[in-house]
Amino acid sequence: MSDDFMLDTDDLQRRMDGAMANLRSEFGSLRTGRASASMLEPVMVEAYGQATPINQVGTVNVPEPRLVTINVWDKSLVGKVEKAIRESGLGINPQLNGTIIMLPIPELNEERRRDLSKVAGQYAENARVAIRNVRRDGMDQIKKAKADNLSEDDQKFWEAEVQEMTNTYIKKVDEALESKQAEIMQV
């Protein structure tokens, strides 16, 4: 192997780990019939002139398996938080009790489960695309090094390393998707 070229595999791995972390976050926001504080993470509230995450305008709790509560700190934002939840597409009907907003989680029907399973598939495909983009960046670095006198054996070695890393992460995405879809379809 040539001593002058060293592919930064740690950087590629860090970026692929980032794609996996993003996938886990998106999967956490998918409602599976059980209450979870993470399902509110993508919901933004128009507060103080800017879009703000719900957890920055109130305390999010899960007191029961099928109930999420939000204790809004500023009374003037209660209506805005309620509106943001209604318009979020989560399919949850908020109930007001003073500054506390209660979100009872309804049982999922079969059609909604299939829809959520498709959304999970889209999230997984986005993660696969992100991982493939990292692979492409790694391959581009190898091609540039080839132009700068990297031997063909070294090029093949580094390309195999990048492809093996990519295959490992794509497999992780597929496993996470399979697990999430099984969780969604569980009655």
UniProtKB/TrEMBL annotation:
SUPFAM superfamilies: Ribosome recycling factor, RRF (SSF55194)
BP term (GO), one: cytoplasmic translational termination
Entry's Gene Ontology molecular function annotations: ribosomal large subunit binding
Localization of this protein: Cytoplasm
Keywords: Cytoplasm, Protein biosynthesis
Family stated for the protein in its record: Belongs to the RRF family.
Protein name as annotated: Ribosome-recycling factor
